[in-house]
Amino acid sequence: MKILGVRIIDHRLWAMGRHLLSSIFYCLLSICIFCFISSSAQAKVNCLKCHPQVRNQLSRGNVHKPLRKRNCTICHSTHASDQPHLLVKPTKELCLSCHKKAFKVKYPHMPVMEGDCDKCHAPHASPYTALLKKQEREICFDCHQKEKIFLGKKLHNPVKKCLSCHKAHGSNYPGLLNKPLKGLCFTCHQKTKIIVQHKGSALKGNFCLSCHNAHSSKKSHLLRTYAHSPYAKGQCQSCHLMQGKKVGKVKSDNRLLCLTCHPQVENADHFIYSHIQLTPGSNVCLDCHTPHLSDIKPSLKGSPKQICFSCHRDTKNRLLSNSPGFKYKHPEAKKGNCLVCHQGHGSNKLFLLKEGGINTCTSCHKRHARFTHPIGEKAIDPRCKTKMDCVTCHHPMGAKDIYNIIFDHREELCIQCHKIST
Amino acid sequence: MSQDKHIRIYGLLFLFVFWSLCPRLSWAGLKGKIIAVIYGGEKIGAFNQPQAMYFDPQRKRLYLVDTLNDRLLSFDNQYKFLSAFNAGGKLKTPLAMVRDRKGHIIVTNKGDKSVLIINVKEKKIKSLDLSHIYPPVVPHSLAIASNGCLCLLDKAYKRILIFSPETYQVQKIIEEKEASGFSDIKVNNNLVYALDPIFKKVFIYSQKGNVVGSILLKGVAFPISLAVDRREHLYILDRHKGKVFIFDKQGKPMGEIGKRGWKEGKFYSPCYIFIDSRNILYVVDTGNNRVEVFKIK
Q1: Which CATH class is domain B41-228?
Q2: Per residue in A84-122, pLDDT tens?
Q3: Is A397 in contact with A315 (CB distance < 8 Å)?
Q4: Which residue, of A24, A261, A405, B67, has the greatest Cβ tally within 10 A?
Q5: pTM of the model as a whole
Q6: Which chain A residues touch B if contact means CB-CB below 8 Å?
Q7: Which of A270, A274, A384 sits opposite B111 (nearest CB)?
Q8: Are residues A99 and A157 in the same domain?
Q9: Prediction ipTM score
């Protein structure tokens, strides 16, 4: 009985509590709804009244959801902000706060990595899908130079739609590809047919792109432009073992095969700094060069930028970095034209430079060869008692001050060596 | 009584704070204190791209390989310059050196891709016979084991050649397919340590060529040289970061020395490190054209 009595009291209390909780909940809900309506109504009135250019965008085909709902305050602060356009957060954080799709991929697209979402997407409205600023094909060419992609008149069909092979935000495969390179070509091209066309030779690895350009070419079958001379002459036997008419394995799997025709390259062995080592394969030459066809002389596998950055990842990150410490970069370094200053095979100069820390620079910066802060034998850096050169003050791979100056030229630079007497 | 109670409480508090800070203290303990900086001078002339150094524990001499000046420089254990040596003009872009138990100086000559064995007393020089090894060896780093075995790194073909003591006959050739290539080798407790700068890994081999283990190096950008101390701590020189990273034998970070820069105690494109039996670390700083000496504590 006692237990039952308690139960009765409990039921009553529970009912009372439920009433109380529900009334609190409805009160809060009504406050929320009121605030929500009033704020959006306020935003609608306040923002669009003074920003007619945004109002005009509402007529475009695709409107960003917050704007469609007149929730300007989701992205913009009404009073003040540290960010441009009174944004409440930096662009990357702001976009990712709603678009929570993970961009944690091995190879992110550079604008995604840097948080430049607005490079491709319009924040308010756009006539194109996914709020793109331009048509899908055109937008890629804002950054990727057409001349480098369309090398000839022969075009690969999917090239009209970049996203048929590439992913826009990032991918786990190099080149932002949809699939691993090994199988990508065979999604459209029948493997059996290809094997017949290649006279039965085995197709393995990333073989297709070693002879064919994926985008365009001057030659039929999208073949790459420049041929390695034995390949062009059909002298397969100079590198391969022949089994009758069939091309067999390569004669040697190390660099000696290449050195038989290119003995001058062996001179790089005599230099302190050389690229004769450090390769996952056994023939070091094939790390940078391709033995059959190439679009870049001298038989390079890709652009110097692609080749160098595949090993020098910390330099790549530095050049791609937007951090204030690496804000200013040498234009050639930014473009990835590494071979303008560096020797590909070997050098006795520090950093594999072509002609040392002065002549490499003055070969282009001719005025500075005649007029500059003292450098060379007569100017000794008191910090390390070594002769000064251009890289004493400048860092072409990224520095914090204008003209790639390592220290702030107004405060820190001169006093590194010139002490102020008090 | 109350005072005793306070003492106990403070004592316990002190112990708690001490134990909680203990791992940090030990981490901070593995740091280097700069004790000397060796520059070229009027007497020696400026160094020109020094690439390596070696400390001879028997004679207590320090040797610097002054590569583009084609000479070796010797210093006493107080880092005072003693003499310069060019082996009668036979040194051509020397890159590394060691001294064996008999006192022979062994040097790799990058200029003519040879390894010279120099008998200083008798003033005789002979080349290490590499002619029978295919593909032809491109000699780079050298290291000598306590049992007298000589280890030579062939950079071009990713090989470590181990030679028998004194007769210097090829005993074993280690070829590593798992590595991208090696930039430096060192020997400690008769184990060969080889640094792979691209995969950022240290491979450890026995002198019979068996893989004993490998250590993945975390946080390094461009490792270029390595050293191993008596406690088997690994010292990794990062050329781009301008730092020496210290790892234990499991690959756990233990501390770091230096910073990128030009002033003493800092490094600008350093290329080689060596640690001697007294736990003194030598950093050959090519960019700053000097050698910095640290006492590891």
Answers
A1: mainly beta
A2: 888 888 888 888 888 876 567 888 888 887 788 888 888
A3: yes
A4: B67
A5: 0.77
A6: 254-256, 269-272, 274, 276-280, 282, 284, 311-312, 314-315, 348, 350-351, 381, 383-387, 392, 416
A7: A270
A8: no
A9: 0.82
